[in-house]
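User: Hello! My lab partner asked me to get a predicted holo structure for this protein. The small molecule is adenosine-5'-triphosphate, SMILES included with the sequence. Please write out the structure tokens.
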Amino acid sequence: MITLRTVSKVYPNGFHALSNVDLVIPKNEFVFLIGSSGAGKSTLIKLLFREELASQGQVLINGVDVMSLKNKQVPYLRRKIGVIFQDFKLLPNMTVYENVAFAQRVIGQSPKKIKTRTLKMLDLVGLLSKRDVYPDELSGGEQQRVCVGRAMINSPDLLLADEPTGNLDLDTAWGITDLLCKLNELGTTIVMATHATHIVENLKKRVIRMEGGKIIEDSALNNVAPRSLPVLGAALRSGSLPKWGRVAPTQSSKPSPSPSSRPNLRPNPKSNLRHKP
Ligand SMILES: Nc1ncnc2c1ncn2[C@@H]1O[C@H](COP(=O)(O)OP(=O)(O)OP(=O)(O)O)[C@@H](O)[C@H]1O
Ligand SMILES: [Mg+2]
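Assistant: Hello! Below are the structure tokens for the protein in complex with adenosine-5'-triphosphate.
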């Protein structure tokens, strides 16, 4: 789904943020991007939805070179991509409901469907009671959850999550991560930049470590079993999206919880947010 060939990015001030990055991410994969602050994680993510243009190399999404797209074609690329931004980018003059509904208006969804799906998504991220509130009246974690809802609402083929748990307490961070895992189980490819080592270590997915604008380690190339789901597997495979809830271990030092200790991963029979066939 994603191919980067010798990609470099030099910002206008001359800073080399990425140097000769080669990367292949197959469809349906869940990849963690890790590395210290300034390593180039957000820059790499920005290249994938053409927020930034590479200075050199090729960025292919489903075989399409995103750099060669004309400006008027870019919205079509972005329709298939959900993005959770490190700095939220919520629309300040729109309510929580409108921020989540907006992405569906853009793709011409019917008003009835918009309403149904938006309310379901707000329920899922635990913000139904805040639907008429504006972003500046929300906590950081609540704003983060609006971003998650907005990114997931159109069941994107690819979800780019830049520090989606950055402002969240541990339990809430796990709730967001569970939603991303479920979306991945339903067919969405996920690229998640994160500093949350407890999440990365617990989920045992593919991990790409960046440093100084380069990929210095990739678990897919190290024969490390990348995609077992020790915590979530059975529950996530069994049905519809889990509803929002408190699902995490309460201390980062705690070992992986057993499935039975994470009760709200049970399928939610009310939810019908699924990928279109
Ligand atoms: N618009 C820009 N102009 C110039 N330099 C930039 C720009 N954006 C980012 N950089 C620089 O590029 C480097 C990589 O930035 P990037 O945001 O990709 O890092 P990151 O790995 O996402 O870090 P963090 O974990 O702090 O989010 C940093 O040194 C940063 O200062
Ligand atoms: Mg970043």
